[in-house]
Amino acid sequence: MIRLRRMTKQIPSGDGSTPPLALYIHFPWCVRKCPYCDFNSHAPRGGEIPADAWAAAVVADLEAALPQIRGRCVHSVFIGGGTPSLLPAPVLEKLLDALRARLLLAPEAEITLEANPGTADAARFGACRDADVNRLSLGVQSFDDGMLARIGRIHDGDGARRAVEDALSRFARVNVDLMYGLPGQTLAMALADVETALAFGVGHLSCYHLTLEPGTPFARNPPVLPGDDAAADMQDAIEARLADAGFGHYEVSAFARAGQECQHNLNYWTFGDYLGLGPGAHGKLTVSGGVVREVRHRHPARYLEGAARGDFVQARRMVGAAELPFEFLMNALRLPDGVSWGLFRERTGLSPDVMADGLAEARARGLLDASPDRLRATARGQRFLNDLLQIFLPE
Ligand SMILES: C[S@@+](CC[C@H](N)C(=O)[O-])C[C@H]1O[C@@H](n2cnc3c(N)ncnc32)[C@H](O)[C@@H]1O
Ligand code: SF4
Predict the structure, then answer these.
(1) DSSP labels for 127-176?
(2) Fewer beta carbons within 10 angstroms: which end of the chain, N or C?
(3) What pLDDT is stored for residue 17 in this prediction?
(4) What is the value of pTM for the model shown?
(5) What's residue 6's pLDDT?
(6) Whose CA is nearest to atom 21 of ligand 1?
(7) Which of 33, 137, 179 has the most ligand 1 atoms within 8 A of CB, as the residue to mutate?
(8) How far, in Å, is the centroid of ligand 2 from the Cα of 208?
(9) What residues does ligand 1 touch, defined as CB less than 6 Å away?
(10) Distances (CA, A) of 277 to 9, 80, 194, 283
(11) Helix crossing, 51-69 with 300-307: angle to 10°?
(12) CB within 6 Å of ligand 2 — which residues?
Protein backbone atom coordinates (compact mmCIF):
# COMPACT_ATOMS: atom_id res chain seq x y z
CA MET A 1 0.00 0.00 0.00
CA ILE A 2 1.52 3.32 -1.03
CA ARG A 3 1.42 6.29 1.28
CA LEU A 4 0.66 9.49 -0.59
CA ARG A 5 2.26 12.60 0.71
CA ARG A 6 -0.22 15.39 1.41
CA MET A 7 0.48 18.48 -0.55
CA THR A 8 -0.60 22.06 -0.34
CA LYS A 9 -1.92 22.46 -3.79
CA GLN A 10 -3.03 25.87 -4.92
CA ILE A 11 -6.19 25.67 -6.95
CA PRO A 12 -6.33 28.60 -9.35
CA SER A 13 -9.29 30.87 -8.65
CA GLY A 14 -11.30 32.84 -11.20
CA ASP A 15 -12.89 36.25 -11.12
CA GLY A 16 -16.05 35.10 -9.32
CA SER A 17 -18.32 34.73 -12.33
CA THR A 18 -16.01 32.63 -14.50
CA PRO A 19 -13.28 30.08 -13.66
CA PRO A 20 -9.60 30.96 -14.15
CA LEU A 21 -8.49 31.02 -17.77
CA ALA A 22 -5.46 29.30 -19.33
CA LEU A 23 -4.12 29.27 -22.89
CA TYR A 24 -2.91 26.14 -24.71
CA ILE A 25 -1.06 26.45 -28.03
CA HIS A 26 -0.39 23.35 -30.13
CA PHE A 27 2.76 23.00 -32.25
CA PRO A 28 2.18 19.92 -34.42
CA TRP A 29 5.61 18.95 -35.78
CA CYS A 30 8.43 16.67 -34.59
CA VAL A 31 11.76 15.68 -36.12
CA ARG A 32 10.39 12.15 -36.51
CA LYS A 33 7.28 10.36 -35.31
CA CYS A 34 7.88 8.04 -32.32
CA PRO A 35 6.31 4.59 -32.87
CA TYR A 36 4.17 4.69 -29.68
CA CYS A 37 2.81 8.23 -30.05
CA ASP A 38 -0.71 9.16 -31.19
CA PHE A 39 -0.51 12.86 -30.41
CA ASN A 40 -1.29 15.28 -33.23
CA SER A 41 2.35 15.42 -34.28
CA HIS A 42 3.87 14.99 -37.72
CA ALA A 43 7.29 14.81 -39.34
CA PRO A 44 7.30 17.84 -41.68
CA ARG A 45 6.82 17.18 -45.38
CA GLY A 46 10.10 17.82 -47.19
CA GLY A 47 11.77 18.51 -43.84
CA GLU A 48 10.64 22.16 -43.69
CA ILE A 49 8.56 23.34 -40.75
CA PRO A 50 6.39 26.35 -41.66
CA ALA A 51 7.05 28.00 -38.28
CA ASP A 52 6.33 31.58 -39.40
CA ALA A 53 3.04 30.62 -41.06
CA TRP A 54 2.05 28.59 -37.97
CA ALA A 55 2.78 31.50 -35.60
CA ALA A 56 0.90 33.97 -37.82
CA ALA A 57 -2.08 31.59 -37.94
CA VAL A 58 -2.05 31.13 -34.15
CA VAL A 59 -2.12 34.91 -33.66
CA ALA A 60 -4.99 35.26 -36.16
CA ASP A 61 -6.77 32.38 -34.36
CA LEU A 62 -6.35 34.25 -31.07
CA GLU A 63 -7.70 37.47 -32.55
CA ALA A 64 -10.80 35.67 -33.80
CA ALA A 65 -11.31 34.11 -30.34
CA LEU A 66 -10.78 37.31 -28.32
CA PRO A 67 -14.48 38.27 -28.05
CA GLN A 68 -15.07 35.06 -26.08
CA ILE A 69 -12.51 35.96 -23.40
CA ARG A 70 -12.69 39.73 -23.35
CA GLY A 71 -11.58 41.28 -20.07
CA ARG A 72 -10.40 37.98 -18.60
CA CYS A 73 -6.92 37.43 -17.19
CA VAL A 74 -4.82 34.51 -18.50
CA HIS A 75 -3.04 32.67 -15.68
CA SER A 76 -0.92 30.21 -17.64
CA VAL A 77 0.28 29.50 -21.15
CA PHE A 78 1.37 26.05 -22.32
CA ILE A 79 3.05 25.59 -25.70
CA GLY A 80 2.80 21.85 -26.30
CA GLY A 81 3.12 19.41 -29.12
CA GLY A 82 4.60 17.86 -30.98
CA THR A 83 7.98 19.41 -30.34
CA PRO A 84 7.71 23.16 -29.77
CA SER A 85 11.43 23.29 -28.95
CA LEU A 86 11.86 23.14 -32.75
CA LEU A 87 10.53 26.71 -32.95
CA PRO A 88 13.24 29.15 -34.05
CA ALA A 89 13.92 31.58 -31.16
CA PRO A 90 12.86 34.74 -33.08
CA VAL A 91 9.51 33.12 -33.96
CA LEU A 92 8.89 32.11 -30.33
CA GLU A 93 9.81 35.60 -29.15
CA LYS A 94 7.52 37.24 -31.71
CA LEU A 95 4.68 34.90 -30.80
CA LEU A 96 4.93 35.64 -27.08
CA ASP A 97 5.11 39.39 -27.79
CA ALA A 98 1.97 39.07 -29.90
CA LEU A 99 0.17 37.22 -27.09
CA ARG A 100 1.17 39.85 -24.54
CA ALA A 101 -0.05 42.64 -26.84
CA ARG A 102 -3.50 41.04 -27.15
CA LEU A 103 -4.08 39.36 -23.79
CA LEU A 104 -4.24 40.30 -20.16
CA LEU A 105 -1.44 38.01 -19.04
CA ALA A 106 -1.10 37.73 -15.23
CA PRO A 107 2.31 39.11 -14.18
CA GLU A 108 3.19 35.81 -12.49
CA ALA A 109 1.75 33.67 -15.31
CA GLU A 110 3.36 30.26 -15.75
CA ILE A 111 4.64 29.92 -19.34
CA THR A 112 5.63 26.34 -20.22
CA LEU A 113 7.30 25.03 -23.36
CA GLU A 114 7.59 21.32 -24.17
CA ALA A 115 11.02 20.25 -25.38
CA ASN A 116 12.52 17.09 -26.82
CA PRO A 117 16.12 16.55 -25.61
CA GLY A 118 17.10 15.80 -29.21
CA THR A 119 16.21 19.35 -30.23
CA ALA A 120 17.58 21.15 -27.22
CA ASP A 121 20.82 22.85 -26.36
CA ALA A 122 21.93 25.48 -23.89
CA ALA A 123 21.63 28.33 -26.41
CA ARG A 124 18.08 27.35 -27.32
CA PHE A 125 17.05 27.15 -23.66
CA GLY A 126 18.63 30.57 -23.07
CA ALA A 127 16.59 31.99 -25.94
CA CYS A 128 13.40 30.45 -24.51
CA ARG A 129 14.11 32.02 -21.15
CA ASP A 130 14.80 35.39 -22.79
CA ALA A 131 11.40 35.08 -24.48
CA ASP A 132 9.89 34.79 -20.95
CA VAL A 133 9.24 31.06 -20.94
CA ASN A 134 9.56 30.21 -17.21
CA ARG A 135 8.94 26.46 -17.15
CA LEU A 136 10.35 23.73 -19.34
CA SER A 137 8.87 20.25 -19.81
CA LEU A 138 11.38 17.75 -21.18
CA GLY A 139 10.32 14.53 -22.92
CA VAL A 140 13.14 12.36 -21.60
CA GLN A 141 11.25 9.00 -21.40
CA SER A 142 14.39 7.13 -20.22
CA PHE A 143 18.10 7.73 -19.70
CA ASP A 144 19.00 4.26 -21.01
CA ASP A 145 20.61 4.21 -24.49
CA GLY A 146 19.24 0.78 -25.45
CA MET A 147 15.74 1.65 -24.29
CA LEU A 148 15.71 5.00 -26.10
CA ALA A 149 16.72 3.24 -29.32
CA ARG A 150 14.03 0.56 -28.80
CA ILE A 151 11.27 3.18 -28.45
CA GLY A 152 12.51 5.13 -31.47
CA ARG A 153 13.67 8.32 -29.74
CA ILE A 154 15.93 10.77 -31.56
CA HIS A 155 18.21 11.25 -28.51
CA ASP A 156 20.41 8.97 -26.41
CA GLY A 157 21.03 8.89 -22.65
CA ASP A 158 23.84 11.45 -22.80
CA GLY A 159 21.60 13.80 -24.78
CA ALA A 160 18.88 13.43 -22.16
CA ARG A 161 21.29 14.09 -19.28
CA ARG A 162 22.76 17.13 -21.04
CA ALA A 163 19.29 18.53 -21.72
CA VAL A 164 18.21 18.12 -18.08
CA GLU A 165 21.39 19.81 -16.86
CA ASP A 166 21.06 22.68 -19.35
CA ALA A 167 17.38 23.13 -18.51
CA LEU A 168 18.04 23.25 -14.76
CA SER A 169 20.83 25.78 -15.22
CA ARG A 170 18.36 28.18 -16.86
CA PHE A 171 14.94 27.44 -15.40
CA ALA A 172 13.78 27.25 -11.79
CA ARG A 173 10.90 25.02 -12.87
CA VAL A 174 11.65 21.94 -14.97
CA ASN A 175 9.51 18.87 -15.59
CA VAL A 176 10.89 15.57 -16.83
CA ASP A 177 8.56 13.10 -18.59
CA LEU A 178 9.47 9.46 -18.02
CA MET A 179 7.67 6.38 -19.29
CA TYR A 180 7.64 2.97 -17.60
CA GLY A 181 6.43 -0.43 -18.70
CA LEU A 182 8.75 -0.05 -21.71
CA PRO A 183 9.86 -2.96 -23.94
CA GLY A 184 12.20 -5.27 -21.98
CA GLN A 185 12.23 -2.93 -18.97
CA THR A 186 12.78 -4.35 -15.49
CA LEU A 187 11.75 -2.77 -12.18
CA ALA A 188 15.41 -1.88 -11.53
CA MET A 189 15.67 -0.12 -14.90
CA ALA A 190 12.49 1.91 -14.31
CA LEU A 191 13.75 2.96 -10.88
CA ALA A 192 17.19 3.82 -12.27
CA ASP A 193 15.53 6.40 -14.59
CA VAL A 194 13.72 7.99 -11.63
CA GLU A 195 16.96 7.95 -9.62
CA THR A 196 18.84 9.76 -12.39
CA ALA A 197 16.19 12.48 -12.59
CA LEU A 198 16.26 12.89 -8.79
CA ALA A 199 20.06 13.11 -8.75
CA PHE A 200 19.87 16.13 -11.07
CA GLY A 201 17.50 17.86 -8.62
CA VAL A 202 14.47 17.99 -10.91
CA GLY A 203 11.42 19.35 -9.03
CA HIS A 204 8.65 17.83 -11.17
CA LEU A 205 8.28 14.40 -12.74
CA SER A 206 5.53 13.01 -14.97
CA CYS A 207 5.67 9.22 -15.02
CA TYR A 208 3.49 7.61 -17.68
CA HIS A 209 2.72 3.95 -18.17
CA LEU A 210 3.36 3.24 -21.87
CA THR A 211 0.06 2.56 -23.60
CA LEU A 212 -0.31 0.95 -27.03
CA GLU A 213 -2.40 3.54 -28.83
CA PRO A 214 -4.55 2.31 -31.74
CA GLY A 215 -3.12 3.15 -35.14
CA THR A 216 0.50 3.47 -33.98
CA PRO A 217 3.34 1.20 -35.19
CA PHE A 218 3.64 -0.19 -31.63
CA ALA A 219 -0.05 -1.18 -31.68
CA ARG A 220 0.33 -2.84 -35.10
CA ASN A 221 3.52 -4.70 -34.16
CA PRO A 222 3.56 -4.79 -30.37
CA PRO A 223 6.98 -5.08 -28.74
CA VAL A 224 7.32 -7.46 -25.80
CA LEU A 225 6.22 -5.43 -22.78
CA PRO A 226 6.30 -6.13 -19.05
CA GLY A 227 3.03 -7.77 -17.93
CA ASP A 228 0.31 -5.94 -15.98
CA ASP A 229 1.62 -7.13 -12.60
CA ALA A 230 5.19 -6.11 -13.41
CA ALA A 231 3.99 -2.67 -14.60
CA ALA A 232 1.87 -2.25 -11.44
CA ASP A 233 4.96 -3.09 -9.36
CA MET A 234 6.91 -0.41 -11.25
CA GLN A 235 4.16 2.12 -10.57
CA ASP A 236 4.12 1.26 -6.84
CA ALA A 237 7.91 1.42 -6.60
CA ILE A 238 8.09 4.76 -8.43
CA GLU A 239 5.39 6.24 -6.17
CA ALA A 240 7.16 4.98 -3.04
CA ARG A 241 10.56 6.30 -4.17
CA LEU A 242 9.17 9.72 -5.02
CA ALA A 243 7.24 9.93 -1.74
CA ASP A 244 10.50 9.14 0.04
CA ALA A 245 12.27 11.88 -1.91
CA GLY A 246 9.66 14.41 -0.67
CA PHE A 247 7.53 14.65 -3.81
CA GLY A 248 3.77 15.11 -3.60
CA HIS A 249 1.78 12.77 -5.84
CA TYR A 250 -0.74 15.35 -6.96
CA GLU A 251 -2.23 13.73 -10.05
CA VAL A 252 -2.35 10.18 -11.45
CA SER A 253 0.99 10.61 -13.28
CA ALA A 254 2.36 13.86 -11.79
CA PHE A 255 4.76 14.28 -8.89
CA ALA A 256 6.20 17.53 -7.59
CA ARG A 257 8.13 19.15 -4.81
CA ALA A 258 6.00 21.75 -2.98
CA GLY A 259 5.54 24.80 -5.17
CA GLN A 260 6.61 23.02 -8.38
CA GLU A 261 3.14 21.73 -9.34
CA CYS A 262 2.13 22.58 -12.90
CA GLN A 263 -0.42 25.38 -12.58
CA HIS A 264 -1.57 24.95 -16.16
CA ASN A 265 -2.44 21.27 -15.73
CA LEU A 266 -4.00 21.90 -12.30
CA ASN A 267 -6.36 24.28 -14.06
CA TYR A 268 -7.53 21.43 -16.34
CA TRP A 269 -7.97 19.05 -13.43
CA THR A 270 -9.99 21.59 -11.43
CA PHE A 271 -12.26 22.24 -14.43
CA GLY A 272 -10.94 25.70 -15.18
CA ASP A 273 -11.37 27.34 -18.58
CA TYR A 274 -8.83 27.16 -21.39
CA LEU A 275 -8.61 28.55 -24.87
CA GLY A 276 -6.92 26.11 -27.26
CA LEU A 277 -5.12 27.55 -30.31
CA GLY A 278 -3.23 25.72 -33.06
CA PRO A 279 -3.98 22.52 -35.04
CA GLY A 280 -6.28 20.11 -33.20
CA ALA A 281 -6.24 22.13 -29.96
CA HIS A 282 -9.20 21.64 -27.64
CA GLY A 283 -10.78 24.47 -25.64
CA LYS A 284 -13.28 24.73 -22.81
CA LEU A 285 -14.78 28.12 -22.12
CA THR A 286 -17.51 29.45 -19.88
CA VAL A 287 -19.64 31.69 -22.08
CA SER A 288 -22.84 33.36 -20.80
CA GLY A 289 -22.92 30.96 -17.86
CA GLY A 290 -22.73 27.80 -20.03
CA VAL A 291 -19.76 25.58 -20.88
CA VAL A 292 -18.66 25.56 -24.52
CA ARG A 293 -16.21 23.05 -25.96
CA GLU A 294 -14.40 23.66 -29.22
CA VAL A 295 -11.75 21.94 -31.28
CA ARG A 296 -9.52 23.43 -34.01
CA HIS A 297 -8.94 21.78 -37.42
CA ARG A 298 -6.58 18.92 -36.68
CA HIS A 299 -4.39 18.55 -39.71
CA PRO A 300 -1.65 21.22 -39.83
CA ALA A 301 -2.13 21.83 -43.58
CA ARG A 302 -5.90 22.23 -43.11
CA TYR A 303 -5.42 24.61 -40.17
CA LEU A 304 -2.90 26.76 -42.08
CA GLU A 305 -5.00 26.74 -45.22
CA GLY A 306 -8.09 27.89 -43.22
CA ALA A 307 -6.15 30.79 -41.71
CA ALA A 308 -6.58 32.86 -44.90
CA ARG A 309 -10.37 32.87 -44.28
CA GLY A 310 -10.30 32.98 -40.49
CA ASP A 311 -11.56 29.38 -40.47
CA PHE A 312 -9.91 27.70 -37.46
CA VAL A 313 -12.66 26.00 -35.49
CA GLN A 314 -13.69 22.54 -36.65
CA ALA A 315 -16.44 21.98 -34.07
CA ARG A 316 -18.04 23.91 -31.26
CA ARG A 317 -20.79 22.78 -28.93
CA MET A 318 -22.49 23.65 -25.69
CA VAL A 319 -22.03 21.03 -22.97
CA GLY A 320 -25.44 20.05 -21.56
CA ALA A 321 -26.11 20.11 -17.81
CA ALA A 322 -26.47 16.30 -17.87
CA GLU A 323 -22.84 15.93 -19.06
CA LEU A 324 -21.24 18.38 -16.65
CA PRO A 325 -20.91 16.11 -13.57
CA PHE A 326 -19.08 13.46 -15.61
CA GLU A 327 -16.82 16.04 -17.25
CA PHE A 328 -15.97 17.54 -13.86
CA LEU A 329 -15.30 14.14 -12.26
CA MET A 330 -13.16 12.97 -15.18
CA ASN A 331 -10.74 15.73 -14.28
CA ALA A 332 -11.06 16.22 -10.51
CA LEU A 333 -10.84 12.52 -9.62
CA ARG A 334 -7.36 12.42 -11.15
CA LEU A 335 -6.21 14.37 -8.09
CA PRO A 336 -5.40 11.99 -5.22
CA ASP A 337 -6.35 14.80 -2.79
CA GLY A 338 -9.62 15.39 -4.65
CA VAL A 339 -11.38 18.77 -4.50
CA SER A 340 -13.95 20.43 -2.26
CA TRP A 341 -17.64 19.98 -3.00
CA GLY A 342 -17.76 23.78 -3.13
CA LEU A 343 -15.56 23.65 -6.24
CA PHE A 344 -17.99 21.22 -7.87
CA ARG A 345 -20.85 23.68 -7.24
CA GLU A 346 -18.78 26.67 -8.38
CA ARG A 347 -17.49 25.13 -11.62
CA THR A 348 -20.65 23.30 -12.75
CA GLY A 349 -23.38 25.48 -11.22
CA LEU A 350 -24.98 22.22 -10.03
CA SER A 351 -25.74 20.62 -6.69
CA PRO A 352 -24.06 17.26 -5.92
CA ASP A 353 -27.61 15.92 -5.47
CA VAL A 354 -27.92 15.65 -9.27
CA MET A 355 -25.68 12.55 -9.07
CA ALA A 356 -26.92 11.17 -5.75
CA ASP A 357 -27.46 7.64 -7.13
CA GLY A 358 -23.99 7.50 -8.67
CA LEU A 359 -22.39 8.78 -5.47
CA ALA A 360 -24.19 6.16 -3.41
CA GLU A 361 -23.09 3.37 -5.75
CA ALA A 362 -19.48 4.58 -5.93
CA ARG A 363 -19.28 4.75 -2.14
CA ALA A 364 -20.92 1.35 -1.68
CA ARG A 365 -18.29 -0.14 -4.02
CA GLY A 366 -15.48 1.47 -2.02
CA LEU A 367 -14.38 3.65 -4.95
CA LEU A 368 -15.30 7.06 -3.56
CA ASP A 369 -14.45 8.64 -0.22
CA ALA A 370 -17.47 9.16 2.07
CA SER A 371 -16.21 12.58 3.31
CA PRO A 372 -18.91 15.28 3.32
CA ASP A 373 -16.22 17.92 2.62
CA ARG A 374 -14.19 16.46 -0.18
CA LEU A 375 -14.89 14.80 -3.47
CA ARG A 376 -12.10 12.25 -3.65
CA ALA A 377 -11.46 8.74 -4.95
CA THR A 378 -10.36 6.11 -2.44
CA ALA A 379 -7.04 4.32 -3.06
CA ARG A 380 -9.11 1.59 -4.78
CA GLY A 381 -10.97 4.21 -6.81
CA GLN A 382 -7.67 5.69 -7.98
CA ARG A 383 -6.47 2.29 -9.11
CA PHE A 384 -9.76 1.55 -10.90
CA LEU A 385 -10.47 5.09 -12.07
CA ASN A 386 -12.23 3.97 -15.26
CA ASP A 387 -14.67 1.80 -13.27
CA LEU A 388 -15.36 4.73 -10.98
CA LEU A 389 -15.98 7.16 -13.85
CA GLN A 390 -18.19 4.68 -15.69
CA ILE A 391 -20.74 5.01 -12.89
CA PHE A 392 -21.22 8.67 -13.80
CA LEU A 393 -21.34 8.33 -17.60
CA PRO A 394 -24.26 10.38 -18.91
CA GLU A 395 -27.00 8.26 -20.54
C1 LIG B 1 3.14 15.35 -26.26
S2 LIG B 1 4.50 14.56 -25.61
C3 LIG B 1 5.54 16.02 -25.63
C4 LIG B 1 7.00 15.80 -25.37
C5 LIG B 1 7.90 15.81 -26.58
N6 LIG B 1 7.19 15.74 -27.80
C7 LIG B 1 8.81 14.61 -26.51
O8 LIG B 1 8.32 13.52 -26.72
O9 LIG B 1 9.98 14.80 -26.23
C10 LIG B 1 4.17 14.39 -23.88
C11 LIG B 1 4.55 13.09 -23.23
O12 LIG B 1 3.55 12.11 -23.41
C13 LIG B 1 4.12 10.85 -23.11
N14 LIG B 1 3.58 9.87 -24.06
C15 LIG B 1 3.45 10.01 -25.40
N16 LIG B 1 2.90 8.88 -25.93
C17 LIG B 1 2.69 8.02 -24.89
C18 LIG B 1 2.16 6.69 -24.79
N19 LIG B 1 1.75 6.01 -25.86
N20 LIG B 1 2.08 6.13 -23.55
C21 LIG B 1 2.48 6.82 -22.46
N22 LIG B 1 3.00 8.06 -22.51
C23 LIG B 1 3.10 8.66 -23.71
C24 LIG B 1 5.63 11.00 -23.24
O25 LIG B 1 6.21 10.85 -21.96
C26 LIG B 1 5.78 12.43 -23.75
O27 LIG B 1 6.94 13.04 -23.25
S1 SF4 C 1 8.61 13.63 -30.02
FE2 SF4 C 1 6.89 13.62 -28.52
S3 SF4 C 1 5.09 14.37 -29.64
FE4 SF4 C 1 6.69 13.90 -31.16
S5 SF4 C 1 6.19 11.86 -31.86
FE6 SF4 C 1 7.66 11.63 -30.17
S7 SF4 C 1 6.40 11.47 -28.25
FE8 SF4 C 1 5.08 12.20 -29.92
Answers:
(1) HHHHTT--EEEEEEE-S-HHHHHHTT-SS-HHHHHHHHHHHHHH-S-EEE
(2) C
(3) 78
(4) 0.95
(5) 35
(6) 210
(7) 179
(8) 14
(9) 36-37, 39, 81, 83, 114, 116, 139, 141, 177, 179, 208, 210-211, 213
(10) 27, 11, 33, 8
(11) 70
(12) 30, 33-34, 37, 39, 41, 81-83, 116, 139
| Residue range(s) in the chain whose domain bears CATH number 1.10.10.920 | 324-390
Of all protein residues, whose CA lies closest to atom 2 belonging to ligand 2? Answer: 82
Q: Which residues of the chain have pLDDT under 70?
A: 1-16
The type of residue at 53 is: A
CATH number attached to the domain at 21-268: 3.20.20.70
324-390 CATH pick, 2.60.40.200, 1.10.10.920, 1.10.10.60, 1.25.40.10: 1.10.10.920
Separation of alpha carbons 94 and 104, rounded Å: 17
CATH 3.20.20.70 residue window(s) in the chain: 21-268
107/76 Cα distance (integer angstroms): 10
